[in-house]
Amino acid sequence: ALAASRSGDLGEVHRFESRMERMRVALKGGWRESTDPADMGGVLYDLGAHVIDQALLLMGPVESVFASSRSVRFPDETDDDATLVLTHASGAVSLLVVSLIGPFAEPRFVLYGTRGGLRISAADTQENALVAGLLPTPGVEWGREPAGSEALLVEYDETNAQTSATVPLHLGDWPFFYSAVERAVRGLGSPPVLLDDAIANLRVLDAARASASSG
Hints:
Blueprint: E1 13-21, H1 43-46, H2 48-59, E2 62-70, E3 81-88, E4 93-99, E5 109-113, E6 116-120, H3 126-131, E7 151-156, E8 162-167, H4 174-185, H5 195-214
Parallel strand pairs: 1-4
Antiparallel strand pairs: 1-5, 2-3, 3-4, 5-6, 6-7, 7-8
């Protein structure tokens, strides 16, 4: 979950960095590593869709895309390492990294402004909780990150003097998304992801694939 932050602390936000890096020495199999174009395998389409979504929501529409996408572990398999640079309509830039050969997965998020920055080192632990067999049921505290996961907020004043503070993270709430899907299917509310947002994400993915292929 992204950190809560007071409005205006960072000045004009001009760069966002997001990375989802994992270390997978061997192939796991499944659609993510399928070379059939119909399966849309590879790390760019899999993890890339998530970091692009975050960049669009936080930084706004994208005007241009540069990307590198590689198959490092097994050259004849799907891509396992990708880097994207998005230039937003605002002039801000997003640097996005997704990889299955990334042994160092921190920081998860970095936000730069003209008056300071915000850094979140740890990744969301809701996936780990699910893998461990925990479910967001009544009586189970869900989405709270462990102590030490707080965001680091650094600010500078007109004299370049620096102040630092930790900022608590919001509770993670993946179940909210699926509850919203259920309500939308039943005609009780709007879908949690609008069609225009999904199309914008796909356009960036397509541009990234074209950029990685053509340079």
